[in-house]
């Protein structure tokens, strides 16, 4: 056994929570992890890009035949209404067996637990291969210079994970009940309608962009996108904003806007749904004479790590520790696994996520 000291994952979680890392601020979290992992013999490199801080840490030879990787993030969402918190959001207080703080669940505890476990592993049973941690400070924001930057840097340096575990919270209610073997894709359509302003008493003299928007949105919602696929639930479309920016009640506005968010499965692509949206917009424009412009952003395409040896390995490990065999799922929102999937097979498993992004975010200490 190595003389490297073991790391207490609960204490490390607390230390990370006390780093104020509202995205994309580094807040000292990656400096802390760099020190802890370097002292344990990991080769650490900061991979900062675009004002975002990232950390790559490897124990073992570069280019090893087997390289088990972990991907996670230390950035967190804003605290929200500070007065509504019963504990300081960056205090890491432990109350009734729960540690409170922003990032306690999503996902500083997961990062701390894996770092501690990785250090224990290499000090007790040095593996025939490599253990890698790829930690970003840009998961909760635009995710342009976080995990993507790490993967770009790895490609340039000849570094590679052969398999990767993403430590996002995956369990809805009980520890061990669910792992993610894929994720639906996400896209947002920003719709702008331009008509002719007029008096509401003389609608025939105007072209109402709001009427055109309502017609378009009704068309988009009129039929389900699909009925689901073998590993995915049905795709969903949600209208999230409608606005004209004019509070007057007797004016037909010249412009209106709406936003639609689509979470889609592997029966679609971002390109096919963009074309579908454009076809409907073109039809409504022809019917109403109101110009409709679309701007679409795609956060990531759907992906699936088909059930097999890797997912079975993760499932059996979870069952051995928790007594539960996790359900393989593709539910929920997007994660950085959408980037990792092009690099190597990826599975997500983490803690119970009921309080993530909420006031009084907290994690059970025994789960850490």
Would you give an account of this structure?
There is one protein chain. Strand 4 and strand 5 (98-100) form a beta hairpin. The model has no long low-confidence stretch (mean pLDDT 95). The strands form six sheets. The chain has a six-stranded mixed β-sheet, sandwiched between helices. Strands 12-14-10-15 form a four-stranded antiparallel β-sheet, covered by helices on one side. 28% of the residues lie in helices and 25% in strands. The protein has 368 residues and is an alpha+beta fold.
Strand coverage percent: 15-25%
Biggest sheet record: 6 strands, mixed
Number of helices: 8
Strand segment tally: 19
Q: Which structural class do the helices and strands define? A: alpha+beta
Rg, rounded, reads: 24 Å
Overall 3D form: elongated
Helix content: 25-40%
Strand order across the biggest sheet? 1-2-6-3-7-18
Mean pLDDT: 95
Q: Report how far the terminal alpha carbons are from each other.
A: 24 Å
- Note poorly predicted spans: none
Provide the succession of SSEs: HHEEEEEHEHEEEEEHEEEHEEHEHEE
Identify the notable features of this structure and list them briefly.
single chain; alpha+beta; four-stranded antiparallel beta sheet; six-stranded mixed beta sheet; 368 residues
Question: Topology of this structure?
Answer:
Layout lengths: L8 H9 L11 H11 L3 E4 L7 E6 L7 E7 L20 E2 L2 E3 L3 H21 L5 E7 L10 H11 L5 E4 L11 E3 L1 E2 L1 E10 L3 E2 L9 H13 L14 E8 L7 E2 L2 E10 L5 H19 L2 E10 L2 E2 L4 H14 L4 E3 L7 H4 L5 E3 L13 E3 L4
Parallel strand pairs: 3-6, 3-7, 7-18, 8-17
Antiparallel strand pairs: 1-2, 2-6, 4-5, 5-19, 9-16, 10-14, 10-15, 11-13, 12-14
Helix pairs in contact: 1-3, 5-6
């Amino acid at each position: 056994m190595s003389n490297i000291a073991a790391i207490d994952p609960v204490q490390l979680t607390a230390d990370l929570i006390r780093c104020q890392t509202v995205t994309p601020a580094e807040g000292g979290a990656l400096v802390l992890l760099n020190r802890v992992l370097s002292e344990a013999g990991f080769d650490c490199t900061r991979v900062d890009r675009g004002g975002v801080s990232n950390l790559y840490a490897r124990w073992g030879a570069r280019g090893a035949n087997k390289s088990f990787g972990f991907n996670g993030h230390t950035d967190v969402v804003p605290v929200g209404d500070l007065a509504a918190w019963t504990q300081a959001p960056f205090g890491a207080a432990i109350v009734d067996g729960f540690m409170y703080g922003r990032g306690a669940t999503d996902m500083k505890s997961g990062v701390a637990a894996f770092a501690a476990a990785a250090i224990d592993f290499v000090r007790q049973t040095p593996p025939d291969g490599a253990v890698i941690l790829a930690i970003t400070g840009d998961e909760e924001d635009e995710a342009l210079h976080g995990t993507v930057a790490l993967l770009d840097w790895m490609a340039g340096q000849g570094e590679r994970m052969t398999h990767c575990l993403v430590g996002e919270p995956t369990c809805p209610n009980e520890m061990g009940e669910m792992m993610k073997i894929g994720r639906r894709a996400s896209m947002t359509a920003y719709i702008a309608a331009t008509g002719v302003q007029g008096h509401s008493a003389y609608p025939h003299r105007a072209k109402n962009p709001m009427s055109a928007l309502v017609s378009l949105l009704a068309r988009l919602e009129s039929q389900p996108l699909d009925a689901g696929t073998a590993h995915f639930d049905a795709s969903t479309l949600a209208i999230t904003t409608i606005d004209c920016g004019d509070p007057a009640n007797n004016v037909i506005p010249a412009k209106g806007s709406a936003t639609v968010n689509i979470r889609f499965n592997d029966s679609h692509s971002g390109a096919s749904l963009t074309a579908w949206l454009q076809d409907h917009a073109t039809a409504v424009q022809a019917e109403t004479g109101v110009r409709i412009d679309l701007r679409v952003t795609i956060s990531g395409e759907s992906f699936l790590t088909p059930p097999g040896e890797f997912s079975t390995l993760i499932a059996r490990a979870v069952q051995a520790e928790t007594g539960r065999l996790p359900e393989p799922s593709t539910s929920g929102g997007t994660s950085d696994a959408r980037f990792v999937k092009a690099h190597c097979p990826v599975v997500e498993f983490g803690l119970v996520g009921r309080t993530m992004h909420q006031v009084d975010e907290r994690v059970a200490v025994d789960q850490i």
